Amino acid sequence: MRAPAGWLFAATIVSACCLSACPAPRRPTQPAGAFTLEIGRDGGSLHGIAGDADHSYAALTTRGQTTSAQTTIEARRGSQLVWKTELAGEGGPLARTPTLVIAAVLGGSAAGVTLRGEPGAVVVGLDPRTGVARWKLAVDSSEWALVAAIAAAGEDVIVGGSFAGTLRAGAKTVSSAGKSDGFVARITATGEVVWIVRLGGPGADAVAGVASTGSRVVIAGTFAAGADLLGEPFAAYDERTPRADGFVAELDGAGARRWSTTFGGRMDDSVAGVAIDGAGRIAVAANTREVVKIAAGEVIAMGDGDGAIAWWSKDGVPGPIVQLGGPEFDGVRAITAAGDRVVVAGFFSGTMRLGERILTAGGGDDAFVVAYENGAFVELWPITGEGREEVAALAGIPGGFIAGVTHTARATIGGADVAAPRDPTSGAALVVRAVP
Q1: Residues 371 and 355 sit within 8 Å (Cβ to Cβ)
Q2: Which letter does DSSP use for residue 305 in this model?
Q3: 119 preceded by a cis bond (ω within 30 of 0)
Q4: Residues linked to residue 153 through DSSP beta bridges, in sequence order
Q5: 112 backbone dihedrals φ, ψ, rounded to 5°
Q6: 0.85 exceeded by pTM
Q7: What is the dihedral of CA 255, 392, 278, 7, to 10 degrees?
Q8: What's the CA gap between 274 and 248, in Å, rounded?
Q9: DSSP state of 253
Q10: pLDDT one-digit tens code per residue, 288-338
Q11: pLDDT digit string, tens, across residues 139-165
């Protein structure tokens, strides 16, 4: 399969094999130059990925039997290692701003910063040329705090996640209203916190995805009945139950609410992320069960669970909905924007239809990466094999996107063959890059 004109497709595959023991990857039978396979590093599980026109950045975490988690942030240009930085703690999301690589790590003393609560998080600003940390910012709480998503906002960065107790980020603090709340914060290129916005209520609430462009900040996540955003109540599907519903909201650059809307059904729903495409439309990737009212319509699950993509205009007007699923349990993991298109990664078992193509899982669960433009199918990259394949992360780059994928056996990524790992307990990074 050849990428559409004007696109660049790159996938970072963290396989469960050691480089020294894993056979060399076999070149795909695509036209010359269509695909290249580039070896990365051995060891580590992938947690976050980012990129720019020339480099990919990955957060890979290793954990010994008697040692705490250690995360390596790596910068690569093709197969060449440019730099790597070691940070104590569990890896999290990454983002690339014009001047920094932003990383989040989790742990009791992540990145050498003493934290309150367990776990707490540290946001680190890294020099993109050397990997040297320019600053480290604790995002912790009297109970616990998690960073789930990071997005560039010009030279600033938007951070979103969840917490319980009293959250502290720099000189800013905010307290939860119940079990757990979501938060979103704006951090400058020098590590200063401009503002924090809390959302939630008496139940469990969280921000799962953030996106930004110009003066727009978009967040998406889940909430329980009784939650609000800056005084505006979220409408739950059923105010009498604690089930999780989804929301999407837009803030301005100063953190003020512009609009928000909710979606949900009788069962718990979840959000995999949010993106703003080149036309300014907002797309949310969600996981649904049974019947869910979302955007301008509803999704009826074809099996135990499905994925869905829903679009809204920049003014919050509902747009099209795309359902991703089949007769078994399927869902989505990540979403990113690539020009006017959005790229979504997900998983499935059994069979499912994407566009005009019927996919059949080869072993355990298989994965896919698919592109849409305002509800219209554009392109599909199947990820199939004899074991389990899963997309861990997506990130937009100029001209396309990069993706982080894990697999446990021999696999095929968009037509490129990947050798089976010998040791499922360790890992090796393999970069698959397609150039039109």
Answers
A1: no
A2: B
A3: yes
A4: 156
A5: 80, 10
A6: yes
A7: 160
A8: 8
A9: T
A10: 887 888 877 788 878 788 889 999 999 999 999 999 888 888 899 999 999
A11: 999 999 999 999 999 999 999 999 999
